[in-house]
Structures are given as structure tokens and as C-alpha cells.
Description:
Layout: E1 6-8, E2 11-13, E3 18-23, E4 28-34, H1 38-57, H2 60-76, H3 78-88, H4 93-113, E5 120-122, E6 129-137, E7 140-144, H5 152-163, E8 167-171, H6 177-190, E9 197-199, H7 204-213, E10 219-223, H8 226-235, E11 240-244, E12 249-253, H9 259-271, E13 281-287, H10 291-304, H11 323-339, E14 342-345, E15 360-363, E16 380-386, H12 389-396, E17 401-402, E18 406-408, H13 412-421, E19 428-429, E20 445-446, E21 463-471
Parallel strand pairs: 7-8, 7-10, 8-9, 10-11, 12-13, 12-18, 13-16, 15-16, 18-19
Antiparallel strand pairs: 1-2, 3-4, 5-6, 6-21, 14-15, 17-20
Amino acid sequence: MAAYKMYIGGEWTGGDGYFETINPATEKPIAKFPSGTARHVDMAVDAAKAALPKWSMMPPPKRGLILLRIAEILKAEKERLGRLVSTEMGKVLPEALGDVQEAIDTFEYFAGEGRRLYGSTTTSELKDKFCLTFRQPVGVVGLITPWNFPTAIPAWKLAPALICGNTAVFKPSSDTPLCAYEMVKALVKAGVPPGVVNFVTGPAASVGEAIVRHPGIEGISFTGSKATGEWIIRNAGLKKVGLELGGKNPIIVMDDAKLDLAVDGILWGAFGTTGQRCTATSRVIAHRKIKPRLLSALITRARMLRLGPGTEKTSDVGPLINRAAQEKTAKYVGIGIGEGAKLLCGGMKPAGKGYYFKPTIFDGVSPDMRIAREEIFGPVLSVLEFEKLDDAIDIANSVEYGLSSSIYTNDVNNAFRAIGRIEAGITYVNSSTIGAEVHLPFGGVKGTGHTREAGILGLDEFSNTKTVYIDYSGKLQKAQIDVD
């Protein structure tokens, strides 16, 4: 089993000990990575601070060329990297290849922003005075990424951070450090200078906390749980903090919906990535007139889904990421049964090796049940019932999260009422709750956080706006002061 290293200040370095990354389909170790400490974070911050002046002064179009080379390297390695995502994280191969493609698209998109990075110009209330804004880098930023998109989400953070002129300390999830290592290799090969990106592996209790608290880090970007996001807010001080947290995403199915289309979208949203997306469909809010037919089709199709290693072409649903996730999913099935919900299918882990869990559907779910309110992050779908659209929207809005949402309907009036009233950062019409595109903003409201990643707004997380006033009147002028 290979032992890998961290990357700090342009050098590959070991740690004080090692941890193993596990294949969730076989429960066998894949590789060993260093258990970093606060000392390694200090080293990484020092390297990032030293590299910041030269990198931030490089013209953004030249930084963009490096990002474009990163995209080209990832594209050339897409098949191999996709298989690695499938092996280390567990998602089925088509989704794993999509994970890598999303990273490629992200670096290509932000490479183009190197020729824009737009500010604004505007008029002044005074004569002979010019006003403008432009972007400046935040400085050294800490990037803490999850395991469920082990190639795409690091790209979501690294690409805008780099194009804006920041340097970074990058900590990946300890469940998927090998995918992150391959990303860093691509950055180095593309010509990212030493110290600009520093790669530190290890547990949250040492590496993660040290990044959040470090006085030399001026910005934090984190994707993960709401509880951890709240801890970061309490402990980061005056850093610029971006958070993309959980979801409890609903699909509303109206009585005029095309049911076959809705079933396709629900199954993809609920059981794609084994339910391990922050945008996963965890609630279906079905009109009572069509609910029996909808449930019948969902159960039939869910039972046909084939569990297996993500690398096998016959697999529809891969394993959960680890044993803790498998046990958490089983716990919530027990909670749902205890709350009085009706288990229609699934609800158990199959025999044998691997962290698998059968696609699970509950009926008879009320909005106050825990399975309808709390993020499970597994293949568990709760079905609720409504009669009027306003009631469905109220149910959709009754949780603490507000990331993604969907409505299936053939009535444009229903669609626009839902778009306007659902409390979420994303709403789909006649499509599932998953499937964001890299040139559009991604993020939510309420307990999901306030950040917008990807798209043009993805630059805001990694830049500060400077306002400039140029007075060429040749005299002292005073804004807001009456002058005779």
C-alpha cells in the first residue's frame, strides 16, 4: 500500500503519523496519508504568505492560462481520475466521470474570468469626480472540502481563489485524500508556483481547527455539515467566511405533472450518489390525487436498482462513504419507523462486505417527523401529501435548510408561484433537485449558509471590493455637505 505526502511550500513532505483511506465497496485500505498537525498548518501558511505578493501581482489573464492548463491536464486524465473517484468515494462510474468533468468545466470557466474580473464604474454626486470599484484578493485562504465530490468541490474553491490572486492552504476530507492529491499534482504540473497552493492532510481536530483559528489566514471556504459551519462561525474571528452546508430538498409533484418524468427525477435525486449530495432529494411532496400511482412507480423502480461497486458497469447505486454513514442511515430508518412512518421498501443494509444500504422509501410522513426535517445523507426518501399548492410550499419551507427544490407541473402559474415562494437558493421546474451547472451560482439560504459558489458570484467569496474616488476638480469637495 503506497504512502503519500503533503505538499507545502513546493515540497512533498511527510507527517508525524499516517492514516488510511478506505475503498467503501470492499472495506479495504487503498493508501496511507500523513496525519498533519497545527505545525504543518503553520508551515503551509508561512509558504502561502511568502508566495502571495508575486502571485497576486501576476496579471489575471496569465493566471487564467495556468487554470486552463489544469483543465487540459484533468481532461487528459479523466478516465483514470474518474475510476479513482469511484474507487475511493464509491459513486458509480458515470457519476465519478461527471465529478471530474465538473472540475474540468470549473477551471475552464474561471480561466476565462482572468480576462474579466469586472468591477464597476458609476457617476459621482460631485462635479469633476470619477468613481470605480475593482477586485482584490482576500489573501491567504483556507479551503476545507468534503468527500462526496472529491474532485469537483476542490475545483469549485481552488479555481476562483487562484484566479482572484489568493494563495491557499487546502485540507481535503480524510475519506478521499487520494483524489485531492491527484488534483494538487495537476496544479503543480500546470505551473502553479511553489507556495501558492499548500496541501495538508489530517483530521479536523488538528488540521481543520488550526486552519480556522490561524491568524495568518484571512478567508475560509468550507463545505460540510451545518454543525461544523456553526463552529467555524464561532471560531474564525474576523476572517471572510464562506459556508455551503446541508439540505433537506423537496420535490413537489402536482396532479397535472407528467408522472414518468417525475419518477425519473425523484429516483435520480434521491438515490444518485447514494443520497450523498447536499442537493439530494430527501422529500417528495405529492398531490393526493396522484400519490398512489406515483408511489407504485417509485417502489417498483427503486427495487430494481442494483447495488454494487461503483467501478462495475452493472451497478446503479454504490456504497455509502464509510461505516458511520451506513450506521447513521440505519438509525434514521429506525427513527422513521418509531415515528409512525410506513416503510415501503429498503430500510436495511445487505449482507456482505461494503458500506451499502438499500434504497429506502417511507410513506405516511408528516412534516414534524425527524426523517422529514433532518439531513440523513443517505438513500432515504420521505413522501408527504398535500391538496393545495400553498400547503405544499409551506411544507417545503418548514425545515431549517434551503438549498435546492423542484416542482413538477405543466401549469406555468404553479411553476412561478413555487419559484417565488419556495425558500431555497435553487429551484428546478420539471427536473430533479440535483444537476447544477458551473457557470451559474450555487448555494442556499437559512441553515444551508449564505455563500454562492460557481458562476460569476463565485468570485465574491475570494475577493474584496475596493472603491476608488478620483477627484480632478482641483479643490476640496465634500460629499453630502450642503454648499452655498
